[in-house]
Amino acid sequence: MPRMLYIPKLIKELHLNDTLLFFSFSGSSWKLRDYSEGFESVVLHSANSGYSVQEIRDMAIQDLPAIPKHKYTEIAFWEKETKRLNQKYLRHYTEDQKPDEQDGEIPDYKSSDIQPGESWVLGYSERGIVNALLYEIQKSKNSNQLIKILLEHATFPYREKIDFNISTAEILIEQSFSDFGDADIVFLLNTGRHKITVFAEAKVKPSQMPVWKIKDEFDKFVTGTTTKLSSSNLFTQLYHKLRMINALSKGGLTSLKNGVPFPICSSMALRKIGSNPVVIRAIKKVSHYLEDTYFLAIIPDTPSNLEDFFINDLEQSRVANLPEWNFNSLGYLAWSDIMNFCIDQKLENTQRVFEFNKGQIF
Q: Where are the alpha helices (DSSP H) in 106-170?
């Protein structure tokens, strides 16, 4: 399978633009192609160098999957894809830096930094950061523009480019939907042409956990479909929201009150919206934003792992026993990208909360 590689050593030696290179290989034969200038340029290949396939990959400080369904001859596509990946992965790197994929550097905020008359609110874990982020955005003079920029950091690999030019926005935080579970964030967005909903579920890497991998989370979900699904699993939570939205779209509030049947692997055979007045108000709000619905995973894995998982593992997965399961509207956003967004947009309060939770988020 082809890869997109960032190899500063070769870029410097070959006097190339600072760019990811398309790497195709078969056996011991390989080629490196540069599409960044709008045409295909074979910059190096196995016949004119002494490097092996593994040596080329070992030199790379970014090694990303290339979308396999597009051939290397599709120059217009690969020019666009190269520029997209360059913007996403290379903007913070220098030639002699190896990235740790937590690109930005947040100042070490100390209590002694608080100025007279100031007060800081430092929330714990993902809930603390979500609250800090969204309230700081809401209080800014260009809040809708910031929401747009934040959501444009997300990747929805199975959808065309989404219009996040927002006229108005309502955001629900930690909203209960009764038997369908809580939603960490619900974005209700009016673009002036469409009314759309984005459900976001956030996961973190607790300090006692050495690493959090999205593939491990998905494997647990697949295993649960043959035994019992865990209600704390990211994909289970997103599946519950998907079924809720499908029922609301087809049968309105009545269908949610009557109940949506779930398969035997679910912890509940019938899930209902209940009668809590706040929950009913929330679902009625959502019902006005159903022209398009997206499901966003905010997660502590690295951007390159996420891209690899969505292009390879998820797209080729088969999940049995789950009515209406699909991932066409599923997207992802790494916590490291949110942190960099806060740095870029100078959201100082949220940066303080990230610093306070260092080691607990990603």
A: 125-139, 143-152
CA atoms of 7 and 23, how far apart (whole Å): 11
Q: Is the pLDDT of residue 38 over 90?
A: no
Q: Tokens representing 104? A: 């930005």
What's the pLDDT tens digit per position in 289-323? Answer: 999 999 999 999 988 889 999 988 888 788 878 99
pLDDT digits (tens, 9 = 90+) for 187-212: 999 999 999 999 999 999 887 778 89
Tokens of 62: 């970014």
- Asked if 171 and 139 touch (Cβ cutoff 8 Å), the reply is no
| Residue in the structure block whose two tokens are 């999205």 | 214
CA distance 143 to 137: 5
Nearest to 34 by CA among 1, 57, 7, 56: 7
Cross-strand bridge partners of residue 183: 175
**In a 3-state reduction of DSSP, which class is residue 298?**
strand
- Calpha distance 117→313 (Å, rounded): 52
Q: What residue type is assigned to position 300 of the chain?
A: P
C-alpha–C-alpha distance, residues 40 and 78, integer Å? 9
